[in-house]
Amino acid sequence: MLAWTGPKAQHVARKYLLTATMPDGYRKTIGPTAAPFTHYWRIVAVLKSGRTEVFWGHVKSLAEAKRKRAASGDAARQRGWTSYQFEVVELVREDS
Length: 96
Fold this sequence. Notes:
Blueprint: E1 16-21, E2 27-33, E3 39-46, E4 52-59, H1 62-79, E5 83-90, E6 92-95
Antiparallel strand pairs: 1-2, 1-6, 3-4, 3-5
């Protein structure tokens, strides 16, 4: 027979804000989140029509961001982008 020891203690992860500042001055804030994101990536793609599209995301390591960069060349060919710029910056953690 097992003894009852009471309710289990719940560990609540502390949430915080993550901020990315791109070289052009654009700031993106993510959160509040407890996810361990470390880097923010952004693709600015120029379409055949001359319009611009922006794709972005956040990842848990610089290595993961570099894999996104490698895949962006394939995306450019598949989608017919005339040019694109891929940028990665480190996220800065702020308590929320």
